[in-house]
Amino acid sequence: MTAHAMKGDRQRCLEAGMDAYVSKPLQAQQLLEIIESLVSTPAGAEMSSLDEAGPLEAAFDQNVALARVEGDTELLQEIVALFSDEAPRLLSEIRESITHCDSKALERAAHSLKGSVGSFGAQGAFDAALRLEVMGRGGDFTHAAEACVALEKEVARLERALAALREENAL
Residue 14, Cβ neighbours under 10 Å: how many? Predict the structure, then answer.
C-alpha cells in the first residue's frame, strides 16, 4: 500500500518487488481482492481446508527452513526451540484479543506468529495467521473464533512435525 498514486508509481513499486499495488485513498473491496489473490487460502474460503490435519510432512517445508538458516542445523535447532517457547504465548494472546475484541492486539500477535511460522515455510499456519492478522487490521471478529481454532490446529501440526524432525535428525 502506498500514498504514491502518480502516473508510473504503480510500475516502479511492482519493479521494486511489491507483490501488488494499492494506492490511497484505500478502497476496502479492492484491498480484499488483492489480499485474496496473494494468499493461497482466501479469507472467505471454507474452513475445512484448514481444519484437515494432513500429513506431517506437509506441515512445513524443510528445505525452506534450512535455507533460511543457510543449512546451519544448530541454528535451526535454536529457532525451533524459540518457536516452541513463543507459540503458546502468541496463541494465548490471539485468543485473549478475540475474547476482548482487541483488534490491535489481534493484528500484532497474529503478525508475530505469522512471521515465526513463515520461517519454517509452514504455509497452512502462515495462511491461518494471516487471516487473523487481516481480521485484526479490519476490526472484523465475525469468524475470528473459527479462524483461531484453525490456526491452533495448524500450529499443533507444525509442532508435531518439528518434534519429528528433531527426533529424526537429533536436532
Answer: 12
| Domain limits, CATH 1.20.120.160, in the chain | 43-169
Per CATH, the number for 43-169 is 1.20.120.160
Count of alpha carbons within 13 Å of 141, Cβ hemisphere only?
14
Q: Give the per-residue pLDDT at 41.
A: 42
Q: How far apart are CA 106 and CA 109, in angstroms?
A: 5
Is residue 47 scored above 60 in pLDDT?
no
**Rg of the chain (C-alpha set):** 17
Alpha helices per DSSP H over the chain: 9-15, 28-38, 48-51, 62-68, 73-99, 103-118, 123-138, 144-169
pTM of the complete model beyond 0.85 = no
